Amino acid sequence: MKFAMEPGMANSSKQLTGAEILIRCLHEENVEFVFGYPGGAVLHIYDAIFHQDKFKHILVRHEQAALHAADAYSRSTGKVGVALVTSGPGATNAVTGIATAYMDSVPMVIISGQVPTYAIGEDAFQECDTVGITRPCVKHNFLVKDVKDIAATMKKAFYVAASGRPGPVLVDIPKDITAHFCDFDYPETVHLRSYNPVTKGHLGQIKKALKLLTEAKRPMVYSGGGVVLGDASEHLFKLIQSLGLPITSTLMGLGCFPASDPKFLGMLGMHGTYEANMAMQDCDVLLAVGARFDDRVIGNTEHFLSNPRTIIHIDIDPSSISKRVKIDVPIVGDVKSVLADMNELIATEKPKQNTVELASWFKQIEAWRSKKCMNFAQSSELIKPQYVIQKLHEVTKGEAFVTSDVGQHQMWAAQYYKFEKPRRWINSGGLGTMGVGLPYAMGVQLAHPNAQVACVTGEGSIQMNIQELSTCAQYQLPIKVIMLNNRYLGMVRQWQEFFYENRYSESYMDSLPDFVKLAEAYGHVGMQITKPSDVEGALKEAFAMKSRFVFLDFITDQKENVFPMIQNGKGLSEMILAEDL
Amino acid sequence: MASTARHIISLLMENESGALSRVAGLFSARGYNIESLTVAPTEDPTLSRMTIVTSGSDEVIEQIIKQLNKLIDVVKVLDLNDGKFIERELMLVKVKATGTFREEMKRMCDIFRGRIIDVADGSFTIELTGSGTKLDAFIESLDKSAILETVRTGASGIGRGDRILKV
Question: Is B74 part of the contact surface with chain A (CB cutoff 8 Å)?
Answer without folding.
Answer: yes
